[in-house]
Specification:
Elements (H helix, E strand, L loop, with lengths): L8 H15 L2 E6 L9 E5 L9 H11 L3 E5 L9 E11 L3 E12 L2 E10 L13 H12 L6
């Protein structure tokens, strides 16, 4: 006669925690910029509603790593700006603030030429990775966005 399967309390807690952690993972969507050898300058439209203080510096650093100069502007678009980068970045708080969602769009002549999105599903849940810095989260996404630039 077969004995009934006994599942311990620790096993049930482990499974529940695994399910919660697994559903609180990172999602990225990237539509890379097509190979554009002439993309050497980008104008970044300042978004004053973004409270992630290091977001623009990280974006500018990654652009620079790809050989792209950048300027930040607010108000009217300067005449010399052919490619405009717009962004949004949201943060959440759980014992400290952290980046939970970001979108970056590149446009030329009003047409989108690239898009990248970072999203922390479920606000990060119990994952300790949710407190990683902006650079750690955004650099791979931006590198994928710009992977074909200058080729």
């Amino acid at each position: 006669m077969a004995r009934p399967l006994k599942i311990g309390r620790h096993a049930i807690i482990s499974v529940v925690l695994w399910v919660i952690t697994a559903t609180a993972c990172t999602s990225t969507i990237v539509r890379p910029v097509e190979p554009v050898p002439s993309l050497s300058h980008v104008c970044i439209r300042e978004n004053p509603r973004v409270l992630v203080h290091d977001f623009v510096p990280v974006v500018r650093d990654v652009l620079s790593q790809h050989g792209i100069r950048s300027d930040v502007f607010s108000g009217e678009t300067p005449a010399h700006c052919e490619v405009i980068l717009t962004y949004t970045a949201l943060r959440r708080w759980d014992l400290g603030s952290y980046l939970s969602h970001a979108e970056v769009r590149l446009e030329r002549d009003g047409l989108q030429i690239g898009y990248a999105e970072y999203h922390l599903r479920g606000g990060g849940g119990f994952s300790l990775f949710k407190w990683q810095g902006t650079r750690t989260k955004m650099e791979p996404v931006l590198n994928e966005l710009l992977a074909q630039v200058g080729r």
